[in-house]
Write a structure and sequence with these properties.
Elements lengths: L18 E4 L10 E7 L5 E7 L5 E8 L10 E2 L14
Antiparallel strand pairs: 1-2, 1-5, 2-3, 3-4
């Protein structure tokens, strides 16, 4: 899985699945961007995939919703375009 890269602009809004955020703070490995992939049923926990500067998946993380309520949104991923993941079952 890979994302296309370009110089982002920003906007503000509530956390929604597909939002793209710049990775900031903490122990930065190669993760530069977070894509919000899902939320808990209550909406209080957010689940992310991290991407490196080349657009390759580099990590995963979960955060409390309040951590992203005021964070600038730099893009939106259309997750409807994702194809099903084919699993080879043993």
């Amino acid at each position: 899985m890979k994302i296309t890269m370009r110089k982002p602009t920003t906007k503000r809004g509530k956390p929604e699945v597909g939002n793209v955020y710049r990775a900031i703070g903490g122990r930065r490995n190669s993760t530069c961007y977070w894509i919000l992939m899902g939320m808990s049923e209550s909406g209080g926990t957010l689940y992310f995939l991290g991407f490196d500067p080349e657009g390759e998946v580099s990590s995963t993380a979960s955060y409390n919703k309040h951590s992203f309520e005021d964070r600038p949104i730099i893009g939106k991923a259309n997750l409807q375009d994702m194809k099903a993941i084919n699993v080879e079952w043993y």
